Amino acid sequence: MKYIETTIDVRYAETDQMGVVYHANYLVWFEIGRTKFIESLGFRYADMEAEGVLSPVTDIQVSYKKPLTYGQSAVVKTAVLEYSGIKVVYGYEIYNEQGELCVTGSSAHVCVKKETFRPISIKKHFPDWHAAYEKAKREE
């Protein structure tokens, strides 16, 4: 399975009153990791949108292990856990600077036509993406 690592500096605005990263911000970091993963395959989500296709989240899971705080750096590891030709499930692991696991999660996505929100086949409409996802699942 191919992983992409993205480093994010924890900004003050991302923390809560307790001084730790507010829980919903990890979802934003998942999106950053997912976008970088897609770019590592040679694609851009914006190009898909330009063709009238969106990729909404259909499910999201987050498990908090250890807090991150302002001034730390986080490393988001992103991979494709599942891919069916229609649905993609991305997996995420977020580590602190000491390499300690802080957050794990996953997000499931389908591609839909913008006008109708009806699902489409990635395999059929974006064969290059399909091939890249298949390859990413097999890579070590």
From TrEMBL:
Keywords: Hydrolase. It is an enzyme of class 3 (hydrolase). CDD domains: 4HBT. One of its GO terms (molecular function) is hydrolase activity. Its EC number is 3.1.2.-. Pfam families: 4HBT_2. Belongs to the 4-hydroxybenzoyl-CoA thioesterase family. PANTHER family: 4-HYDROXYBENZOYL-COA THIOESTERASE FAMILY MEMBER, NOVEL THIOESTERASE SUPERFAMILY DOMAIN AND SAPOSIN A-TYPE DOMAIN CONTAINING PROTEIN (0610012H03RIK). This is Acyl-CoA thioester hydrolase.
